[in-house]
Amino acid sequence: MQKKSEPTRNLVWLTVNSSYSHSSLALPLIHARCCEIPGWHWEHCETTIAEDPLETVCRLEKSAPDLLCISLYLFNRKYVLDIVRRFHVLHPECPIVAGGPECLGEGAASLLTENPFLYAVFRGEGEQLFHDYLQDFENQSPHQILPAEGNAVFDDWESVSYPVNDPFFRNDKPFIQYETSRGCPMGCTYCTSGKTQYRFKNPDTVCEELTALRSAGVREIRLLDRTFNLPLARGAALLKLFRENFPEIHFHLEVHPQFLDENLKNEFRHALPGQLHIEAGIQSLSKDVQQAIGRKSDPADALSGLQFLCRCSAFETHVDLLAGLPEQSFEGLADDVSVLMRTAPAEIQLEVLKILPGTPLQQTAAAQHLRSNPFTPYDVMSNGCMSPDHILLARKLSRLLDLTYNHGSLHPVIVKMAEENTEALSLLLEYFLSKGLELNTLYDLKKRFLLLAEFFSSHSFPSAAAELAFQWICAGYPLDQTPCIQPEKIMFLPEQRHFLSGREESITERETKFWSLHSGRQSFYFAFNRKYSFNRPAAIWRNAE
Questions:
Q1: Peptide bond connecting 360 to the previous residue in cis, omega within 30 degrees of 0
Q2: How many DSSP H helices and E strands does the chain contain?
Q3: Which of 30, 218, 235, 292 would bridge 326 by S-S if both were Cys, CB 3.0 to 4.6 A apart?
Q4: In this predicted structure, what is the pLDDT of residue 4?
Q5: pLDDT tens digits, one per residue of 384-398
Q6: 488: number of Cβ within 10 Å
Q7: What is the dihedral of CA 487, 428, 463, 278, to 10 degrees?
Q8: Which residues, other chains included, contact 231 with Cβ-Cβ below 8 Å and sequence gap of 6+?
Q9: How far is C-alpha 261 from the chain's CA centre?
Q10: DSSP designation for 316
Q11: What's the sign of the alpha-carbon dihedral 224, 229, 233, 238?
């Protein structure tokens, strides 16, 4: 007698990314753990927040799910819930289950209350939790929160291989995400990972998995480790592994700059040019603010570590700073930005604090005088020291940084400004506000050059003004319109000169023309030839020291 085949249900996993270049790690992690459970056929419906919700609903209908799974993040929550509400109207018989950071802590209960059509909400690490749920799906009751208390932790995470060979793993995106650790020992109350169980993969396992990723064609990896450089010895060993065994892969790391011993510093000094990209979490340089958020860092040590990272020429260091933290004033925030500008990281990323579901700060927000948007993105609107006007001003300051400091051509100009005058930031912000700076203000690069030139015409920043003229020429704008200092056409280059960049052989070309830019004791020389570039310098020198 032929054995009756087991019925197969359709499990459809809906992934909504912020853009095409992003790819969620949730599905391959979960599928790799659950794929051997019989009776399930898995499908993936992937889209971005730019797609029309009804288009996604129509795609889901074609898959005819018996179970629809969603992951909710800060950036996609509204969009995903819009989709599944529509789908539920059309197919109320299909169970819809949710997981992701939006489900952590009390976020699970509020999510279920606001969306009673959800069949289950999972909070915490889902590999084992979802595995057990699927195995006993027939006996599951609706409207569950799993686990009933706390957030799930996957105890066997260290022993499970990265799902590079899973059919849902995407290696065709610009980058992939990878973990060498889970959890974080830091106690930052605004973070969903604060003081969570800290676990590590064996370095040999990391090497094996990176080898598999390299064989799959991956060349860009963003590590999800919350604090890559802890423990110190492990961080140094991994940096050495990256440098010696995987020189062709570019790694994006999150580093706490306070924790740098000599071994780690030595590895950073010997980093391969361009292999690393460092995100350094500063958040605040105030001891009172640090204490109020449970960070327990020493701002002086963190700043010293950041200064070291910024001196390393093999990689760029970007700094994270938060506005609206408890005990933080706008003046204190502006002072932090000014200090960081003089430290000269490649970028200063200033964002407003968010009161995320499942974080300790969500529980203490009222006591700490924090008032925030109750819906995504949960941004703070006042903190007892900063009014809504101050928070708005902080957001405009962030916009100013993006328009000026964080642009490669203007970055050296703003750094010189900060070095010349400790009041540079307040003067620049006041000037741009007078010129109509708003959150959505768009200035093309040339307009920003001209605005800075006008600013320098009424404020004394001689070094920054000279740098502005130099960067104008490097950007390829008309020489006869160079702001602040006018370049001069010359027939020959001086014999004593120091080569900076470009194609030095251009000086031998018949059509090459030479220009000089003089500022005080420093001079620059430029070669122009359309064979090498239509309007940018073919080569640049400065006077010999």
A1: no
A2: 17, 21
A3: 292
A4: 42
A5: 999 999 999 999 999
A6: 12
A7: -100
A8: none
A9: 25
A10: E
A11: positive
How big is the CA angle at 338 (ends 438 and 331), to the nearest 5 degrees? 70
How many Cα neighbours within 13 Å face the side chain of 492?
Answer: 3
490 CB-near residues (< 8 Å, 6+ apart): 514, 515, 516, 525
Token pair listed for 217? 């064609």
pLDDT at 7: 67
Query: Angle at which helices 53-63 and 77-90 pack, to 10 degrees?
Result: 50
Residue 415: CB atoms within 10 Å: 20
C-alpha 61/C-alpha 64 separation (Å) is 5
Tokens encoding 205: 């396992």
| CB of 519 closer than 8 Å to CB of 542 | no
**pTM for this predicted structure:** 0.93
Backbone angles phi, psi at 494, to 5 degrees: -65, 150
| Burial of 109 from C-beta contacts in 10 A (0-12 / 13-18 / 19+) | middle
Helix (H, G, I), strand (E, B) or coil at 120: strand
Q: Are 428 and 396 in contact (CB under 8 A)?
A: no
Give the chain's residues under pLDDT 50: 1-4
d(CA 260, CA 230): 9
CB atoms within 10 A of CB 62: 9
CA 365 to chain centre: 25
* C-beta of residue 102 within 8 angstroms of C-beta of residue 357: yes
Contacts (Cβ under 8 Å, ≥6 apart) of 203: 234, 237, 238, 241
User: Mind listing the domains of the chain with CATH numbers?
Assistant: 9-146 (3.40.50.280), 175-385 (3.80.30.20), 487-543 (no CATH)
Bridging pattern class, strands 522-528 and 539-543: antiparallel
**Amino acid sitting at position 23:** S
Amino acid at 390: H
pLDDT value for 6 = 60
Question: Smallest Cα–Cα separation from 326: which of 290, 356, 375?
Answer: 290
DSSP 3-state of 57: helix
Instruction: Judge whether 111 and 358 are in contact, CB under 8 Å.
Output: no
The reported pLDDT for the residue numbered 521 is 87
Q: What's the sign of the alpha-carbon dihedral 22, 362, 283, 243?
A: negative
Residue recorded with tokens 């957001």: 395
- Find all residues with CB under 8 Å of 228, minimum gap 6, and list them: 180, 181, 235, 238, 253, 254, 255
Beta bridge partners of 499: 541
Q: Are 229 and 200 in contact (CB under 8 A)?
A: no
Both tokens of 287, joined, read 């001891």
